[in-house]
Here is the input.
Amino acid sequence: MRKDLLIRVFVFLSLIGIITACGNENVQNNSNGEQVNPIARILNATKGKGVIFGHQDATALGINWMFVEGASDVKKVTGDYPALFGWELGGIEMGWKKSLDSIPFDSIRYLTKQAYEMGAINTFSWHPYSVINGVNSWHGDSVIVKHILPGGSHHEAFLKHLDAVGDFFKELKAKDGTDIPFIFRPWHEMDGSWFWWGAKACTPNEFQELFRMTISYLRDKKGLSQERMLVAYSPDRNFGSKQQYLTWYPGDEYVDILGMDNYWDLKFEGGQDSVIRKLKMVIELANEKGMFSALTESGCEDVTDTVWFTQKFGAVLCDSLINKELSYTQVWRNDPKVHYYFPYPGHPAANDAAELLSKPNIFLLKEFIEAKKSE
Ligand code: BMA
Here is the structure.
């Protein structure tokens, strides 16, 4: 072979090597090809066996109880805990002792640790107040994002908000001192118009910059490396193609889990077909990128449809491809003062929810612990 041809072949092969190595970064592999993130290892172990079921605020409050040790509406109805616990940090950036949902951050810390010790996964959402004018997250017309980006009038002040979030995460330690790994899902539902980081209040570029800045700051300045924190990108249901789904996408380096929140489609007759169609796009993208996929939020408010769990949600989760590919899902919180998304004992939908969750391929905690044994 001629020397210049040899050089070309060498350059070509090196490029392939570089491209492959970049791909690995997305799934958190170290140089030996091993997963460095404990949650990523678990999601790899359970993939193909079923979908992990989660509940927001699962052990913090429910119908007719609040902070009762060991209580959970999911457990009351199904006999077992969810396998994924969601928690909300809104208000922490204001220096408050309690979240915007009146849950003390000390309780969230305690319950996160408990969930971890039980073998569950913890995931965090954050509905922050604006550092500019103190309004809550549901101000879809307020132009805030561009002012908190680098160079903006409130950038430095906003970094203090990120400090509060990062410090909270850093303090999450197990009994033996191990850092508790978690999923962080910031700036979700950006394709909707209800949040100040949403489609009406910032451009996709500004949004992407906000997302990247948030994750880089937590990683680089707060030490929350990819070994500890997985990041979920989680638009709502407003997309009809993979390209549209990626409108707000900050880039592979900043994301580990591709998600979708979707309450809306499941309100309608046949809506499960739209959810299935959209989730399949998310799954395809996740597989192309070597990432995980999730239905990061769903639910029927006050469970007014008594067969919602088996007929709507279940139709999605039991779709053969989705059941094999989707890592997890979560229904929203049970707050008797506001709304609830999981039935309580005696509720007309209780048996229906229990029926769905009794399926071996939708994981409550015990099944999840079994499934992850091959980790
Ligand atoms: C929303 C509602 C609100 C809550 C917020 C953050 O969907 O449940 O009441 O404040 O989530 O948890």
Remarks:
- Residues 88, 90, 100-101, 127, 332-333, 338 surround beta-D-mannopyranose (CB under 6 Å).
- The chain is about 40% helix and 15% strand.
